Amino acid sequence: MLVLTPFIMTLLIVEGIIVFFGFIAFIFSIKIYKKYNFNENTSYQYNLAKQGYLVSIIVFFILCIKLPLFLFFVWSMDVVSSLIPGAMCAAGIVDATDYGIYMFIFKILNLFFLSGWLLINYEDSKTKNSSFLKTKFKFFIPIFILLALEFLLEFLHFSGISLTEPVLCCSDIFKANDLGELKLWHTDKFILSIFYLFFILNFISAYYKADLLISIFSLLFMLSAIYAIIRFFSPYIYELPTHKCPFCMLQSDYGYIGYPIYILIYLGAVPGFFIFILELLNVKIEECWYKISMYANLALVGILSYFPLAYYIKNGVWL
Fold first, then answer.
1. Residue 318: phi, psi to the nearest 5?
2. Which residues contact residue 311 at a Cβ distance below 8 angstroms, ignoring those fewer than 6 apart?
3. Which of 250, 229, 230 is nearest to 74 (CA)?
4. Do residues 142 and 22 touch, judged by C-beta distance below 8 A?
5. How many Å from the N-terminal Cα to the C-terminal Cα in the chain?
6. How confident is the model over 33-75, as pLDDT tens digits?
7. 208: Cα separation from own chain's centroid
8. What does the pLDDT read at residue 176?
9. 173 sits in which H/E element
10. Average pLDDT over residues 75-84
11. Cβ contacts of residue 39 below 8 Å, gap of 6+?
12. pLDDT at site 178
């Protein structure tokens, strides 16, 4: 079983430790959310405030581990793909069971939610009376449930993969024939139109500090970028028209270009999420979030646009 390989065992052990500490934070979060009252000056409330400080440290520890662990998770899936018949990259591992895609989605969602929690914690630390103490612990309650679900899906997924049963490779998962159907949303014109349109709208929203719009367009641009990578840009990265895999670009054969691409997608999208949270908290939004959004997305568009342009200049044709 794949779950017994050193990389996956390491991953599950670390995730198990995270869930364990998260459970401690979860219990304290419920207690603090229900019983903390800033207006009561008693020793019990003072102890609750101290417990809140402990929980904040635990959640900070969880995020500090989760961010690099996500990169280790992606790298590990790529490495163990050599052990599974048929798998050529992490795509074959993700697709190996029905739990894989949901596990991957939960991992990404949890990164955003934990980042949002730390933002609230940071804003709370700037207030004299811990204005957002109950808010941040209320927010952590559903986050822990998502973390526990992610761990459960991860265990079910990896324990369900055999080392002898073949899985689909990325070429079968992202079949060019299926992707090439002449439906509007499959055409290059449509894919590139929404990709560049949402980038421009997001950039303008950030430039003029239109908070609600940047929150919306950040999400739409992130989704359109992932869609465009799979259906349009990946063949130019691989210089092969039938290769439409979003994972192979993480391999050394392609200079690990996938890592900066996906990190830029995260850096470009998370400011929009942060601005949405800061609007709900009704606090001042710092200038840096707008700049991070603009620069990260600009760099992403520049990198992705380079590949088809370079291919056309070199070969004189489009794929």
1. -100, 150
2. 236, 239, 318, 319
3. 250
4. no
5. 40
6. 888 877 777 888 888 888 888 888 888 888 888 888 988 888 8
7. 26
8. 55
9. helix 170-173
10. 84
11. none
12. 53
